[in-house]
Amino acid sequence: MISFASFPVPSQNETQGMTRHHPDVEDDIDMDEGFEEGFHRLTSPGEPLTSSQAFMRGHGTYIDNDEVISSVAGTVERVNKLISVRAVRSRYNPEVGDLVVGRITEVQPRRWKVDANSRQDAVLMLSSVNLPGGVQRRKLESDELQMRTFFEEGDLLVAEVQAFFADGAMSLHTRSLRYGKLRNGQLVTVPPALIRRLKSHFLSLPCGVDLILGLNGYIWASKHVKQSEQEGEEAFDAEAVYSNKNDDIDDATRLAISRVSNIIRILAAHFIPLTDTLLLDAYEWAVEQEGDVKDLLQADIGDAMIATIAARD
Amino acid sequence: MAVPSLSKAERAYIQASLQASPPLRADGRSLLDFRTVLLETGVAPLANGSAKLNIGKAPQEGGGGTEVIAATKLEVEDVETGDGVDGGRLVCTVTCSPSAYPHLSTNALDELQYDLTILLHQTLSHPTLHPNNLGILPHKKSWLLSLDLVILADAGNVVDALFMAARAALWDTKVPRTRPLQYQSRKAGDALKNADAMEVEGLPEITSAFDTRDMARAAADFELPDYWDEGEVLEGRDRWPVCVTLNLLPPSHFLDATLLEEASTPIRLLLAYSFPHKSQPNLQAMRFIGSGEVVLTQLKALNADGEKYARSLFDSLETKLRDEDIRRNVKARDKFAVR
């Protein structure tokens, strides 16, 4: 029922204490000031990058003793004379057009505040959601009074980044039939760096699971809904779109959702970017093993999975 | 709590999964499974006893899971001035790191800390658990055992983690050996007279005329003899309780809830059991958290179940703590000898 273990001990191999670099980078280390534009070099906190006489410091760096020094681990980027470091693990940096999954944190006059794993809460204006009664309908005062019937605190939604405010906060919109409130599933969170921009962020796995890969690292795993049965296919149905009720979900689907979620967690723990083929390979492998869903979270089984699917690529 | 709130659809999904047959949890565990618990004792060099505990850390990853650090420190207290209590006392404090609860305001964080502190303090400082070797000099000096716990991250089931960490830290606590001293008044013409374990240090042959100390009163004090280890373990260290949280979702209940599961459970029952050697288990504390309802007739069955879970938790923890003792003493000695 319960098992105890020790904290992992940092491995004490002979390379400890030496700075190690990825083989690809190794050759470039000696190349002083090799900051060509479009070329990415890995760096770690405290590593001197260049002289502050010749370059300006950007995000993720600071100046000490006339040297630009990295303050985070990540890739070095240069734009003209500006040196910045993009951190490997950071909050989500939104761009217009990104698909994000968010959670309502606050209902304010004519707007919702949405937690989207960014530095600031995103804003969803009442004017940028689909209201019942057609897209062309005028916004009414009564809509403002019943905002909680559309989204209330804690609700999850999928939306697109529409624009930015002056302070850098993003503005979202759900004016598409694919966007809106989420139900029939569960949320998995991964570092945002692991979600690449794909052709489509709505994945449908053959095991009966739909995935929405939010670029902010929030992933929604839910029961598959047939294209023809998606809400509002013919006419916009506010009842269905803003419903809080789940459909009937059979046990096999629940199991599949749990399994997919665990696979995503393992891939994230090994810091492997998610793609649909990778997920499918991993799912097939997990089913072949005929193990329990919870076995996946054991370290050795997770490692075995990573080794297998890495070999297939 | 990384997730401040939960949508109705998520809550319904989690509840339906838990109530399905067979029940299924988000990460595929069965209802009574715990996540992997990582434990290490002796993590704080300056503390008398310490432990670090993590429930559900993601393998390969730096973060994740509920993380608690517990440490004990002994202080000398004067009983006569009214600070201390004869026979020593135990004070527990729980601190929640703001990074564990980023969405809570300072006031809410303080309240949470206060609630957890009260729960731990009331349970652990109960007279039935009191260790006998916290006194130094009867009616004069005693040890104050401060147990401080810090919640570094919360991924659910924080109370069980706190109790386990507290038990591990108290298990690890070493009380320094003390030797009572006595200054004896010098009567005219008397040689120095030694009482039983008494020792007189540096008393001058001739009493100074400027010495205004009241030599008539036998002022007792103690000293710390130099010894190869840090002292003896707390008496009755196998009595310290463990807590199990039963998350009640009628008709069943489950253990070791994640944050999302906690948020979708209407009521939780905390049971702290201690299992003294060769005697009946004691129920040391019982709390309900949440707004749900429980019928009194269910409570007996829940208690019986809780005792069973607590027993297995207690046994596993005991085994792990003994392993840790061996790791830190025997193995460390062998390693030193090899060198």
UniProtKB/TrEMBL annotation, chain A:
Residues 1-25 are annotated as: Disordered. Residues 9-18 have a biased composition (Polar residues). Residues 185-226 form the K Homology domain. The keyword Repressor does not apply. The keyword Nuclease applies. Residues 91-162 form the RRP4 S1 domain. Signal peptide: none annotated. It is found in: Nucleus. CDD domains: KH-I_Rrp4_eukar (cd22525), S1_Rrp4 (cd05789). GO terms for molecular function: exonuclease activity. It comes from the Eukaryota. Keywords: Exonuclease, Exosome, Hydrolase, Nuclease, RNA-binding. Pfam families: ECR1_N, KH_6, S1_RRP4. Residues 44-79 form the Exosome complex component N-terminal domain. InterPro entries: Exosome_cplx_N_dom (IPR025721), Exosome_RNA_bind1/RRP40/RRP4 (IPR026699), KH_dom_type_1 (IPR004088), KH_dom_type_1_sf (IPR036612), NA-bd_OB-fold (IPR012340), S1_RRP4 (IPR048565). PANTHER family: EXOSOME COMPLEX COMPONENT RRP4, PNAS-3 RELATED. Belongs to the RRP4 family. This is Exosome complex exonuclease rrp4.
UniProtKB/TrEMBL annotation, chain B:
It is found in: Cytoplasm; Nucleus, Nucleolus. The keyword Ligase does not apply. Keywords: Cytoplasm, Exosome. It comes from Rhodofomes roseus. It comes from the Eukaryota. This is Ribosomal RNA-processing protein 42. Its main location: cytoplasm. PANTHER family: EXOSOME COMPLEX COMPONENT RRP42, EXOSOME COMPLEX EXONUCLEASE RIBOSOMAL RNA PROCESSING PROTEIN. Residues 33-176 form the Exoribonuclease phosphorolytic domain. The keyword Cytoplasm applies. InterPro entries: ExoRNase_PH_dom1, ExoRNase_PH_dom2_sf, Exosome_comp_Rrp42_subfam, PNPase/RNase_PH_dom_sf, Ribosomal_Su5_D2-typ_SF. Belongs to the RNase PH family.
